[in-house]
Structure to design on (988 residues):
């Protein structure tokens, strides 16, 4: 793994901005709600700007780990503070920045225990940022848990329907996941005999036996997979999303579930390629069950948030399927899907949250014709729905296309089933859109006002990201490529699977005709 | 010629006990007693910290002063000092008895300090007994407790029974080796640990320490004693007493040199049984002190993981675990003492609205509970990481997984307490909790310590690691 040291600790700066934002929010007097919101917004805008910068400044020709910073932390245990980003992490940082910023702005109307909300929200984001940039297993785990814990309070205090149940279920499920990850991490660190927790060092120098890799990979796959909404460990996700307040749903479905997938990728696949190969058929089957299950159960839902919650399960199934193919296309698609789904779900929850705040219902049957009174709000909802279906020229189209290109080669039957089910899903989502935004207007909503410009701004940012990366997928694709090609190349001798020729992908050819 | 200098902290503590003994003779004056206790314990803490560098053997080699014992003495003294910090409102104890209360605390602390340095089976036995006897009496000090003397008596009976078993074990060990000096045993035990008489003697002799640490199956006294005792005494049992138990248990297990699978299996059994029994029972508790008692039982199980690993990392982990338990448990009791009116017992619901009544305490409680659940970035996580790493070095992956699953179980009831503090709306308008400035600083210090121990434990782990130097073959 190539490591390029940073000239300036950009990554730590992101964390530092968040930490200072958190500290500032904490010391502000109790009733200064406006100040708290402005501080949070400033903090999120600054980190968004930095993540956009990092996304652009990442040297795609050089590849490898860039902006690497390192500090000895607990030398006696071989723990160091080691950060860096590659082609997988840079999009995730961008995603976090976008969702953080838009989440804060989406919660502008909050007036109940404001200070505590934003403090916990920023704390959660610190964990997320940290997790995406950390390269030391100790810190990966620490950030992982930091990003989970505020969730309980966020849902239980500010949530809606069945919040106590939803919060407790979510927390216990996710902590059960971390209960498997921690043994996995310590296990690998102990059997490597290297006295280090540094991921690059372990990837380079440790030689784990097949048994060790299979055991550890399974622990990571289930542990992180719970957070990624892998079937059958997904059941916390719809209830949790429904119970959570808007910004928390956005962050949770948008970013936190990606932490799970990212953990499988970063820890599981990097460290245990043989385990990855051994379990990949199982991953593929579970992923496809997730896709089918998410769609089928989603069909029966009448609550908009449940609809999105179950569609998240199926979309994360696509990520899992991409990982399971063990090909460059599959990985590219999966990471692209993580980004696309993150932005899309955030927009979805943000739009639904806006509608719910006005109408106090999320029942599809009670809504209808909203586009007549709330054209802006409905159009964001429609964009999110279209992205969810995977309409061409939106970001998720490219992501799903890549995954299915790979999946048709490796698991043709499973790919066939998934594509078939997604067509059903498309029909269903269009019906949801029709029943909420179009058709006769329910007279109860006739008095509602449309979204103000300020409230529309975060949604516009999200929609712009969906459309922008839909029109220019190569911006994302080229970046992810810099990380996925070496990952698959490194597999070559180890698993005898992917030779250089399989790296020449259909998608690259497709993209070469782009003007 | 005994080097009395090495014995100064103990002599000081004895003298402090003497002061309270004279106070006992006169009429009770709670204000004076409290002020004297604060000053004496603070000075004693400083003294123990200053003497941390002492080294040597006293009393014909039965009393060893080294980094290990001195740091543990400082820890025990911190537990004593922190407990006294909670005594500003000692309404759970009759006014006339405050001097006796502090006297017994002093004596118990003294005995635990002796325990940390004891390297002869007889000294160990005697110091263990002195420390326990003070606690038996202290548990009974609760003013107007409905169950009367029953919990204290139960505590006493359990204690007496387990020390009888321990004495029998000591006798067997002495019979087998003809010596009770640990230094001499250290060379001989590992080779002969699998002989029936040595194995039996060794395992039986652990029972007294298991009782002290409240390890399954010697844990049954804990919930009743915690519930019945004045809050400050429960806090003391949960902090200083546990640290002392860890100190001596680590020394004892180090005797085997980690050579015996049979001993390891016994310890694995009590470890798994403790954490499982403790966590499952804690889920059903409404009274906070009972909940904390069962959580202590569970934590004893986690500590045992470090101890049974019997390697450098494991001992380091166990020592660090003792430190972290002291901080986290103390923080919980600090909140209990403040939230309970007039020293009454409180249920979990009584914490409702704590985040408004005393935000600092609520935050401290949050970190302490997350720490107890072993969630990063708190000190409790570092402690668990160390003991789990040690177990993993011995190839005990499954044990670590069982322990982590237990952590998830424990999270359920910790979150229940947290929910009460942060979410449940109080039934009536509760009084705001008056938190004085020194107390606020104490709470802040605990918060900082818990986070620092999670985020940057470098120097603490290094110290704990240095302490284990004399334990390994």
């Amino acid at each position: 793994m190539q490591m390029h040291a940073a000239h300036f600790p950009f990554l730590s700066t992101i964390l530092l901005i968040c930490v200072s934002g958190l500290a500032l929010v904490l010391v502000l007097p109790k009733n200064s709600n406006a100040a708290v919101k402005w501080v949070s917004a400033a903090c999120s805008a600054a980190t968004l700007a930095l993540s956009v910068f990092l996304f652009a400044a990442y040297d795609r020709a050089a590849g490898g780990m860039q902006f690497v910073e390192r500090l000895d932390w607990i030398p006696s245990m071989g723990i160091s503070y080691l950060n860096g980003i590659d082609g997988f992490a840079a999009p995730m940082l961008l995603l976090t920045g976008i969702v953080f910023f838009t989440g804060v702005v989406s919660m502008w109307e909050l007036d109940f225990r404001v200070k505590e909300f934003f403090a916990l929200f920023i704390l959660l984001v610190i964990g997320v940022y940290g997790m995406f940039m950390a390269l030391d297993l100790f810190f990966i785990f620490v950030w992982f848990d930091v990003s989970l814990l505020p969730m309980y309070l966020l849902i239980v205090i500010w949530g809606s329907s069945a919040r106590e149940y939803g919060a407790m279920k979510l927390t216990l499920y996710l902590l059960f996941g971390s209960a498997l990850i921690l043994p996995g991490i310590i296990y690998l660190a102990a059997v490597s005999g290297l006295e280090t927790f540094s991921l690059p060092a372990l990837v380079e120098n440790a030689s784990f036996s097949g048994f060790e890799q299979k055991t550890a990979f399974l622990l990571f796959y289930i542990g992180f997979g719970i957070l990624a909404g892998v079937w059958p460990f997904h059941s916390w996700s719809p209830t949790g999303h429904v119970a959570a307040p808007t910004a928390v749903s956005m962050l949770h479905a948008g970013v936190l579930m990606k932490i799970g997938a990212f953990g499988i990728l970063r820890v599981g696949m990097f460290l245990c390629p043989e385990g990855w190969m051994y379990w990949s058929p199982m991953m593929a089957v579970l992923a496809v069950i997730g896709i089918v299950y998410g769609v089928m159960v989603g069909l029966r839902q009448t609550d908009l948030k449940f609809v999105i919650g179950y569609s998240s399960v199926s979309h994360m199934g696509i990520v899992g399927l991409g990982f399971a193919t063990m090909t460059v296309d599959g990985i590219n698609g999966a990471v692209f899907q993580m980004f696309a789904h993150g932005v899309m779900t955030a927009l979805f929850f943000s739009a639904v949250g806006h509608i719910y705040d006005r109408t106090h219902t999320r029942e599809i049957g009670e809504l209808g014709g909203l586009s007549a009174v709330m054209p802006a709000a409905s159009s964001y909802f429609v964009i999110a729905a279209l992205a969810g279906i995977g309409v061409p020229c939106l970001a998720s189209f490219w992501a799903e296309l890549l995954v299915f290109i790979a999946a048709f080669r490796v698991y043709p039957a499973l790919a066939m089933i998934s594509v078939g089910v997604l067509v059903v899903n498309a029909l269903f989502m269009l019906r949801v859109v029709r029943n909420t935004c179009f058709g006769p207007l329910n007279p109860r909503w006739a008095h509602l006002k449309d979204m103000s410009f300020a409230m529309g701004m975060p949604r516009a940012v999200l929609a712009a990201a969906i459309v922008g990366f839909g029109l220019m997928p190569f911006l994302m694709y080229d970046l992810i490529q810099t990380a996925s090609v070496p990952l698959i190349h490194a597999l070559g001798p180890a698993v005898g699977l992917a030779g250089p020729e399989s790296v020449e992908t259909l998608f690259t050819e497709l993209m070469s005709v782009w003007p | 010629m005994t080097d009395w200098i090495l014995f100064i902290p103990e002599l000081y503590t004895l003298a402090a006990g003497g002061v309270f003994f004279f106070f006992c003779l006169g009429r009770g004056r709670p204000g004076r007693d409290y002020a004297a206790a604060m000053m004496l314990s603070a000075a004693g803490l400083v003294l123990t910290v200053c003497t941390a560098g002492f080294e040597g053997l006293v009393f014909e080699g039965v009393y060893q002063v080294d980094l290990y014992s001195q740091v543990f003495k400082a820890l025990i003294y911190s537990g004593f000092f922190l407990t006294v910090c909670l005594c500003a409102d000692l309404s759970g104890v009759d006014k006339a008895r405050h001097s006796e209360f502090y006297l017994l605390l002093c004596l118990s602390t003294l005995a635990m300090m002796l325990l940390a340095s004891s390297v002869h089976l007889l000294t160990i036995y005697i110091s263990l007994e002195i420390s326990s006897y003070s606690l038996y009496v202290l548990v009974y000090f609760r003013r107007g407790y409905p169950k009367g003397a029953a919990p204290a008596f139960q505590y006493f009976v359990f204690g007496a029974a387990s020390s009888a078993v321990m004495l029998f074990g000591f006798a067997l060990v002495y019979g087998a080796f003809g010596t009770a000096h640990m230094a001499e045993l250290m060379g001989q035990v590992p080779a002969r640990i699998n002989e029936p008489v040595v194995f039996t003697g060794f395992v039986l002799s652990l029972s007294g320490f298991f009782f002290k640490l409240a390890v399954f199956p010697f844990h049954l006294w804990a919930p009743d004693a915690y519930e019945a005792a004045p809050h400050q005494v429960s806090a003391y049992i949960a902090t200083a007493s546990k640290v002392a138990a860890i100190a001596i248990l680590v020394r004892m297990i180090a005797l085997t040199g980690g050579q015996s699978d049979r001993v390891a299996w016994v310890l694995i059994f009590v470890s798994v049984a403790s954490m499982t029994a403790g966590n499952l029972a804690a889920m059903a508790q409404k009274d906070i002190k009972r909940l904390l008692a069962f959580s202590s039982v569970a934590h004893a199980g986690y500590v045992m993981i470090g101890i049974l690993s019997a390697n450098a990392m494991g001992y380091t982990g166990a020592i660090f675990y003792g430190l972290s338990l002291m901080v986290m448990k103390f923080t919980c009791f600090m909140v209990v003492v403040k939230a309970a009116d007039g020293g009454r017992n409180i249920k979990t619901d009584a914490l409702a609205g704590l985040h408004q009544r005393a935000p600092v305490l609520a935050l401290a409680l949050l970190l302490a509970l997350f720490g107890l659940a072993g969630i990063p970035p708190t000190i409790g996580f570092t402690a668990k990481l160390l003991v789990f790493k040690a177990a993993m070095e011995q190839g005990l992956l499954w044990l670590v997984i069982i322990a982590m699953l237990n952590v998830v179980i424990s999270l359920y009831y910790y979150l229940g307490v947290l929910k009460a503090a942060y979410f449940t709306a109080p039934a009536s308008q509760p009084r705001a909790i008056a938190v004085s400035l020194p107390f606020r600083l104490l709470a802040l210090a605990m918060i900082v310590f818990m986070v620092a121990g999670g985020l940057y434990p470098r120097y603490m782990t290094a110290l704990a690691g240095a302490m284990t130097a004399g334990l390994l073959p």
